[in-house]
Amino acid sequence: MTTDNLQLKKLNVALAERSYPLYIGHGLLGRPELLTPYISGREVMIVSNTTVAPLYLERVVAMLADYRVGTVVLPDGEQYKTLAVLDDLFSALLEQRFSRQVTIIALGGGVVGDMSGFAAACYQRGVPFVQIPTTLLAQVDSSVGGKTAVNHPLGKNMIGAFYQPRCVIADTATLDTLDDRQFSAGIAEVIKYGLIRDREFFDWLELNMAALLARDPAALIYAVERSCQNKAEVVAEDEHEQGVRAWLNLGHTFGHAIETGMGYGEWLHGEAIAAGTYMAADLSARLGWLVQGDVERIESLLKQARLPVRGPKALAVERMLELMAVDKKVQDGSIRLVLLQGIGAATVTDQFDPALLRATLEQCRT
Amino acid sequence: MTTDNLQLKKLNVALAERSYPLYIGHGLLGRPELLTPYISGREVMIVSNTTVAPLYLERVVAMLADYRVGTVVLPDGEQYKTLAVLDDLFSALLEQRFSRQVTIIALGGGVVGDMSGFAAACYQRGVPFVQIPTTLLAQVDSSVGGKTAVNHPLGKNMIGAFYQPRCVIADTATLDTLDDRQFSAGIAEVIKYGLIRDREFFDWLELNMAALLARDPAALIYAVERSCQNKAEVVAEDEHEQGVRAWLNLGHTFGHAIETGMGYGEWLHGEAIAAGTYMAADLSARLGWLVQGDVERIESLLKQARLPVRGPKALAVERMLELMAVDKKVQDGSIRLVLLQGIGAATVTDQFDPALLRATLEQCRT
């Protein structure tokens, strides 16, 4: 199919304080008219990383001919999502004399988005922010919801803010340059949306995973749009994660423990989430909430997406439990998990026999 | 007078998103019933510093017998208001396993309040926050308005957030232990409220400065209440500093340049603000906006409060201008200053002859 036929999709992320548009389409980096209405001042700082900048930075700069544009290129990888690197970003902003009127643009994946967004939330107590996510994970996850953060050696995403962008531009053409491992990592979050609240989308993914993996533009646009639609509905209902938003963390308490325990950057976020999602399914089955056939469908779809369904052997069960106990979802000392009561039906609970959790962790080591 | 006769004052800080009570009185650290209604979980982390903790930490812990209480004692001084020390605070929270249900209590002056508030804004993307300010400066300034921040080597308060406390408890009895230099530094901000919008209060200060300096409880309560009332009115009108809130920065563009240029901690904030206030008055007079008699009244009141009215000789005029140019109030490259059109009448402007600003800076070096 030719990309000319692909529509530009526009989602409105509806929030109490502020709504913003999310544009999804193929080739949007060539369309400055989508971006510039959301830049209020004359100053722009583009934040990217060493992988993405050589590919796309010049094109984004070209969209901003009428602005004073600064750039910062961060090292690439989750292990650099730290307060120290954030401080370098603040130094760059100050050294280049950017005022409180600057708009910060994140051009890159989740790490660039999380750090740029948090920098925007804090620089001079808050400046406008725009996201141009260039990984599948960032397009389907961090582009909606306003969660920004850096990691701490003692826990992932422990330091951050809820901070909404002015707009998000998800150009699926940028996914063409994504390596296979990163692409699969993004699929983990796409599958998640089907699992927690959209059984029909899960069915679609089973039928269309091959097209997605081949990066068929129409399949990509559909998957990104449907994922973002799901996330936008959840976030609109619960911006600050007091309730249903917790569903979005399916697999994340397990996954964050893997990421923290193995050292940030060793496992990709999406890989850890995939293993964590399988663990959640396994535990749900042990609790009698999920039939074995559904566990197998989940395992099969994750595997088709070339994702891991087991955690690392290097992390002992006790260490996993210890790491899970510092998760943000812990309340009054109890580990709260997002589990499944069917495909498309998530629930949050701390009501489970710890022995079953141990059995899952034991079972799910590589 | 006996302290029994002193009333408990309660101010409501009215904000769009959230309002909170500010209690002012003598001996409030003995009144847990004021504090505990604003702590929603069972976990509390008290942040203090090496000066205040030995004096008051035990009493605050005693107010919280029914909670799991952690404590962190930071080094004392503006030079420690950094991202690095903030990171230590995050480490303490994580090491002591505090969850997203923790309430952070700031017990100390402006530095403790600014850092604790910013930590509360960022820890796990935001946890509740209570302030118990123990310096005059913190009671009249940082207890209202929700500004939190840390400094950057390239600029003061450049990294922070607007984050409102659940409540503020200003116990004027804690001012008894404040050293004279710190006490005077607080008076600088008290005088500011008179200058920017409350001529009657300025007149009162001229008549009652001796009682204030003697730390007469009734005079203190009145000065704190009237200062906070002024600030609360301004902040309620303009929470995110788009307009009149900028008035609160009278003397601050000059003052921040002094603090940054001399190295944080060398001049106290209030001392730098006092010198900056005089500079603003001097420039206002050069512009023909303020009569010489009013400049003299301002100089005389600042001096009576044992505050400096000149900047440090060590900072050359060019260096001051350079430092002032990175201030948060700079817009499109112009230095915007809060100036006076009379006692009780502030205005914000970038419409002044730069030669007059230079003349003021030259005139006002020690």
Tell me about this structure.
Two copies of one chain form a homodimer. Helix content of chain A is 44%, strand content 17%. By secondary structure, the first copy, chain A, is an alpha/beta fold. Chain A folds into two domains: 175 residues, Rossmann fold, CATH 3.40.50; 184 residues, Dehydroquinate synthase-like - alpha domain (Dehydroquinate synthase-like, alpha domain), CATH 1.20.1090.10. In chain A, the strands form three sheets. Chain A has a seven-stranded mixed β-sheet with strand order 1-2-9-6-5-3-4, with helices on both faces. In chain A, strands 7-8 form a two-stranded antiparallel sheet. Chain A has a two-stranded antiparallel ribbon with strand order 10-11. In chain A, helix 6 packs antiparallel against helix 7, helix 6 packs parallel to helix 10 and helix 7 runs antiparallel to helix 8. The mean pLDDT of chain A is 93. At the A-B interface, helix 3, strand 7 and strand 8 of A face helix 3, strand 7 and strand 8 of B.
